[in-house]
Amino acid sequence: MTQSPRITLIGGGLVGALLAQQLAQRGFAVEVFEKRPDPRLAGFLGGRSINLALAERGLQALRSAGLADDVLQRAVMMRGRMVHDRDGHSALQRYGVDDSEVIWSVSRGALNMLLLDAAEAAGVTFHFGQSLVAVDFERQRIRLADAAGVEREQTVGLLIGADGAGSALRAAMNAHAPLGERIEALGHGYKELEIPPADELAATLQQLGGGRDQYALEPHALHIWPRGGYMCIALPNTEGSFTVTLFLPAQGAAPSFASLPGSTAAAAFFSEQFPGLLSLIPRFAEDFDHNPVGTLSTLYLDRWHLDGRALLVGDAAHAIVPFHGQGMNCGFEDTVVLANLLAAAPGDSAEVFAEFQRVRQPNADAIAAMALENYVEMRDSVADPHYLAKRELGALLAARIPAHYMARYRMVTFTHLPYAYALERGRAQDRLLEQLLRENPDVATIDIEAAAQLLVSTLPPLPALR
Ligand code: FAD
Q: Which end of the chain is more exposed for a tag (fewer CB within 10 A), N or C?
């Protein structure tokens, strides 16, 4: 029997911790070197509440790790997008057909800690406060620095980099043998702000005439303030707060982060563009002036691995922009695929790493493209009549011929169909919807029977869903 190799993981974030747990569950000896201190002791990101949307792909990976129920207990259900227009009106656009098709807002910190606990319980050894600084691939040794900058060397097993978009392992691999790296900056940045729980906002909410239990806004929705070239979003947290994220061009004419140098200008901009929102963010000045502007890029690599010695996963291999809420979900899918491949052929890492890239890269490229497209959809199209007509027609067809039509968002968010399939099928469906609406822009008078026939005769049925 082939002996399982020792695995050395760099990065104990969301993907690293889940991968470590899955590998340990399959009998591998796993050690993880993580740059930051143990968040369970040190507190996560200075205590700020930052959240992410968890969807079916991520949930499926958590199910396979036996962790889905624990995570869902700490999550807030989001049924759809609550779109807030400039006049202060809002309307819910449901994501799926019913409450079986929802996404979940989870705290990044709480999720990471839960995954660290689970990995440790499965036998993984973590070394916190250990930052990878260099790799000697020939001697299978790495150099690590602690928080004080003191360096030491360490022998390693199979090296797997889950150290995020700025991966140090990727830089070391690239220096050893170029990976064909391309990083495409979006040119837009983001800043996080916080709406506290309703009791902290009692006076404001009374003025606004609202009392919504612990939450200042509808809790079971992802809120969007789409404004064409930019937007704000807000996701609920279990304790009653919301994390608000402002996405804006980084540079250039107003509005951009460059045109809003401080909270005074930003508050005036909010009052004008996002009516009602400013009064829900009592620490606006503090948040705006202290929280950094994050940058957003898409990472493309020709190679994800160095023969059988080192491999990149998650954001380290394929960081994407966050507008489909799929970066973590995609990274979680990676963990199941990789753990299964390694468990099936533990002695052949070169073959496993190559197969992992072969299977996952077309899907990573597809979700990268869809995430970029979704920025335009979120900040602009959700308020556009043509988009809404297409959405309505799509919903009618999905109800009429469910084996032949499914909205791309649903394929990405609520199924396990490969991302590459969702991209291609979505484009084919979109062409047909455009054709139908060109012929008749009024959805109410479109002959749905004839439209359904056109789709059925043009496109093969959707694959069976697992
Ligand atoms: P990371 O989470 O970046 O973790 C990397 C880990 O490696 C960290 O713990 C880091 O400390 C450690 N590390 C870094 N360098 C070193 C080193 N030299 N040595 C040792 N350790 C190191 N995804 C979703 O699915 N849904 C969402 O709603 C969503 N929203 C997002 C919103 C924003 C604003 C952004 C920026 C991203 C969002 N994402 C979302 C994407 C998601 O955050 C990432 O895809 C996910 O965090 C990737 O996990 P990871 O473990 O690969 O990388």
A: N
